[in-house]
Amino acid sequence: MPKALNLEELKSKANDIRKLIVRCTTAAGSGHPSSSLSATDVVTALYFGGFMKYNPQQPRDPDRDRFILSKGHACPVLYSAMAEAGYFSVDDIMTLRKLGSPWEGHPNMRRLPGIEASTGSLGQGLSIGIGHALAGRLDKKSYHVYVMLGDGETGEGQVWEAFAAAEKYRLNNLTAIVDRNGYQQTGATKDVLDMGDLAGKIASFGWNVQTINGNKMDEVVHALEKARAVKDQPTAIVANTKKGFGILPVLETTGDLNYHGKPLSKELAEKALALLSQTN
Amino acid sequence: MYLGELSGLKLGPAPRDAFGDAFKELGKTNPLLVTVDGDVGNSTRTEPFALAYPDRGFNVGIAESNMVSIAGGLAACGKIPIVASFACFLMDNAFDQIRMSVAFPQMNVKMVGSHTGISIGEDGPSQMGIEDVALACSLPGVVVIVPSDAATTRAATAAMIEHVGPTYLRVGRGKLAEIHAPGVKFQIGKAIQVRDGSDVTIVANGLMVAAAVDAATLLAKDGVKARVLDMHTIKPIDAEALAAAAKETGAIVVAEEHLHHGGLGSVVAQVTAAAHPVPMEFVNVGDTYAESGDPDGLLKKYDLTAEHVVRAARRAIQRKAS
Fold this sequence. Notes:
The complex is a heterodimer of chains A (280) and B (322).
Chain A: H1 7-28, H2 33-48, E1 66-69, H3 75-85, H4 90-93, H5 125-138, E2 145-150, H6 157-168, E3 174-180, E4 183-184, E5 187-188, H7 189-192, H8 198-204, E6 208-213, H9 217-229, E7 235-240, H10 248-254, H11 266-279
Helix pairs in contact in A: 1-2, 1-3, 1-11, 2-3, 2-9, 5-6
Chain B: H1 15-29, E1 33-37, H2 41-44, H3 47-52, E2 57-59, H4 64-76, E3 80-86, H5 87-93, H6 95-103, E4 110-114, H7 132-137, E5 143-145, H8 150-162, E6 167-171, E7 192-195, E8 200-204, H9 208-221, E9 226-230, E10 233-235, H10 239-249, E11 252-255, H11 264-275, E12 280-283, H12 295-301, H13 306-321
Parallel strand pairs in B: 1-2, 1-3, 3-4, 4-6, 5-6, 8-9, 8-11, 11-12
Antiparallel strand pairs in B: 5-10, 7-9
Helix pairs in contact in B: 1-8, 4-6, 9-13, 10-11
């Protein structure tokens, strides 16, 4: 298990990961940087805050903790975190989305060891996570399964099938994190399909639910610690985030705070990287 | 009168029952086997397994999408999940989950669809799986098996579990004639010749194998020798047996309890066209949904009888001459 970073180190690591997200998507000329940036603090805490046990040299270790990125389009954050963790190199992920590269536009577990699920068709990751959690229980393993969903993704009915089933089996080895950045492809989630009191809805399915600011590292770390302590039910963390967090002033200049599914131009990327360097 | 009776075949158990028995039996010795159910285990016959090994049976309710993706997760951890439902609810309802959680990542999930074809009868078209084979065959890397009787269903159940990779097994609801002896040699991708003949080959699967045998019996009365191939595996197809049939008999009839498009007929036609084109005729449900009714009446109304196979065979043979 990698050494847990302290709060300041985690913030700095998140910043490094944000730079990689901007760099690899701009190099690719496509992708979903803003959806990745909202999720960066949670992913950073999971991989570097001492929450997940993993060994990049043994990505199929049966005892490893699992992270499933159900919102697969945000894979630049996953690839960047895994590069920082030593699964592969930073140069590798600069081949993102290029012909022949296993760093595909959405995660492909067949081509990249360490990727736990092939996602990209929204709604399936939590169910896959239940499968991992049930297998862990059958095999008397102590690993934990983390699944990250998007808030727009909760429009998929399968997500609610999964919330119900996880409660049925009292899966205390499963944590769902909803990256609630408030946007989906064509606009704000409250305009497209308003899920309203998302935390209350999930709680009504029998889950332990916390609501936090998912772009504040201390809140993220605290929530993950609390989730680990829950012993008799699955935990959900509704992480209120901002799409594009870390480079919001740059996105503001474009007039598009959703900035869905498009990379920054070289010029904007330079501005974003300069901004992130100031934050470091 | 049941299909196969005309040829003196005995009526045996339903494929779904044979599957359920075999699955439970295999569960004794294979601890990796688990099952995920969409609350129809007493129909699909996964229930005996789940009752025998309660910690390895998961009924997730009427939620096929969740059911299939959970199976994908279990398989990723080394389990061998059997995920079963009515064929239409499994294949049609959960198709994207099958695509993304099973086929694309090549998860070792065993999909079983029951209540296939129109012979389920009275419950009507909403319950009839008649698109399932086309859907299953469209998925890269998925093995598709449609056994014709209890003996081959038992053997197919064992074979699909032994096979590493995603599979789809189609098991009918009603009792079927015993085409094969118990313990029949069964190999995925290898057709079983049920009758030899030199004038025409009838390629069939599922309950239409019994109809094909009856058709061969009827044709023999007129001196027409029909070969009958039980093409239990549609993917991978036995191209060798098909090429030999085309060359040696010069005409092919394909009979299946499935829609016209995308089933066994389509696959056989592709292979035959490439290997050795010969006149072909097709006996199937057609390009339509059926209706409620008694199974025998439905099979007659929707052209799935031995007589329909006989007529198709005569057409194919006639075309061969012209």
